Amino acid sequence: MMDDPETKMEVEIPYELLKDNQKKQLGKNNEAKMTLYNALPCKDEETIDSGFTRFNAIVTSLKSLEEDSSKNHVRNFLCALPLKWRAKVTAIEEAKDLATLPLDELIGNLKVYEMILENDGVASKTTKEKVKSLALKAKVTIEQTSNDSDSQGLKEGVIKM
Questions:
Q1: Distance of alpha carbon 24 from alpha carbon 87, whole angstroms
Q2: Which pTM value belongs to this model?
Q3: Which pLDDT does position 105 carry in this prediction?
Q4: pLDDT at 116 exceeding the cut of 70
Q5: What's the superkingdom here (predicted)?
Q6: Domain-by-domain residue ranges, the chain?
Q7: Vertex 55, ends 49 and 61: CA angle to 5°?
Q8: Looking at 8-137, which runs of residues are DSSP E strands?
Q9: Residue pair 79/111 in contact by the 8 Å Cβ criterion
Q10: Does the structure show a pLDDT above 70 at 38?
Q11: Which of 18, 65, 62 is CA-nearest to residue 38?
Q12: Which helix (H) or strand (E) holds 121?
């Protein structure tokens, strides 16, 4: 689709009739669409390795489109992490200078934290399996007593275990 200069409306032009600069722009548009598609969030179960691989593909695509004006990939990667990583992201932001933090160092740090999260998940699962509930039953019966309160119709509860 291209804008017709005479009618100011979009008209469909066959690819063969496009000029070289229009073909190049169309190619860049398609690459940009694919980059945006790749940038869509994945499941929360995505590992740091797979997330980093996806992130690198996006950065590489942006470089090829000459659209990569931001050089702070560390901050961009941290922002793309799922919500369960928010505490770690905050700790890294407070402890490190993100402008000078190498991306490889960040990924190593996050991989260690990922292993800790996995170990905590395994530990909590085995703890839940080991814990068994114990419940006591109490039986309440009403008995009449043979004292003066009997004559008044009062009864007292006795708990038997």
A1: 44
A2: 0.51
A3: 92
A4: yes
A5: Eukaryota
A6: 41-133
A7: 140
A8: 10-11
A9: no
A10: no
A11: 62
A12: helix 103-130
